[in-house]
Design a protein that fits this description.
about 100 residues; alpha+beta; Gyrase A, domain 2; two-stranded antiparallel ribbon; 6 strands
Length: about 100
């Protein structure tokens, strides 16, 4: 198993094909076989007021900066729009530790 894989499959960072800093947050572009339905579930879990997941990727300080998460696209070409005071660097660091996708 590569160091980028978790025991349940690829790590979230393996699906990231690009990140764009926007005025109101960060767009995370996902591909490489990503499932839109799973990203929709992940967005609900990680959005403000959501239950979160079992990963340690989203500490309370980072989560407090997220105002909302919108998802667009289709399987294998999905964009998560993280709205709030977040940066590409912070999102990259969180994605590197995130295995929530595999819990869905």
């Amino acid at each position: 198993m590569s160091e980028q894989q978790t025991t349940n499959g690829p790590a979230m960072r393996d699906y990231v094909t690009g990140l764009d800093q926007k005025e109101n947050g960060v767009d995370v572009h996902l591909g490489n076989g990503v499932d839109r339905e799973k990203i929709d579930v992940l967005a609900v879990k990680c959005a403000p007021g959501g239950p979160g997941c079992n990963s340690d990727c989203c500490d309370p300080e980072f989560a407090a900066k997220i105002e909302g998460i919108d998802v667009s696209g289709l399987d294998d070409r999905v964009t998560m729009h993280l709205r709030g005071a977040v940066t590409v660097d912070a999102v990259t660091a969180k994605m590197a530790r995130c295995d929530c996708y595999n819990e869905i």
